[in-house]
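REQUEST
  id: r-88c1
  op: predict_structure
  target: Ubiquitin-like modifier HUB1
  payload:
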Amino acid sequence: MIEVICNDRLGRKIRMQCEPDDTIGDFKSLVAAQIGTTADKIVLRKWYSEFKDHITLADYEIRNGSLLEMYYR
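RESPONSE
  id: r-88c1
  status: 200
  body:
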């Protein structure tokens, strides 16, 4: 299990526990359930690269304690 932090830059930071083999789509579903919105409205980024839903967290080298930027569509 790893812990990933999502910051939406509006004052909300969410700490989510997940597996490195989870896809970004699965992770977005967990975050959406936590904050009460739908997963398709969430966009996860790090710097200027937007994460694709079908790629795993380990492929993007997201590890324990990583910080992701969360935006809404």
